[in-house]
Amino acid sequence: MNVSRDEQRVLHVLAQGGHIAHHREDNRIIAVDCFNRDGHRLVNCRLDLFAKLKRKGLIASKGGGPYRITLGGLRAVRAQLDNR
Q1: Distance CA 77, CA 64 (A)
Q2: Is residue 79 a contact partner of residue 33, using CB atoms and an 8 Å limit?
Q3: Tens of pLDDT along 10-69?
Q4: What is the number of other CB atoms lying within 10 angstroms of the CB of residue 59?
Q5: CA 67 to CA 18: how far, in whole Å?
Q6: Where are the domains of the chain?
Q7: First to last CA, the chain
Q8: Could you give the 3-state DSSP secondary structure of residue 68?
Q9: Partner of 11 for a Cys bridge, out of 25, 38, 77, 81, CB 3.0 to 4.6 A?
């Protein structure tokens, strides 16, 4: 599956335990914020990028909670070095 560089960055953060918090208005998602496992916000996670990831089935939400990576998303993400 073709996944862009920005999508790879978001998927990598989610694969390490991050989540995407969404903000709703009239049952529509109007804004998203991507947080890594330490609570820091990822700047390049936009609403259009979120929609692409959701359409491809790489992220999902359970019970109205935050969006997390799916098994398909884990398969699509490429390995990266973690500079910790």
Answers
A1: 24
A2: no
A3: 999 999 999 999 999 999 999 999 999 999 999 989 999 999 999 999 999 999 899 999
A4: 24
A5: 9
A6: 5-76
A7: 28
A8: strand
A9: 77
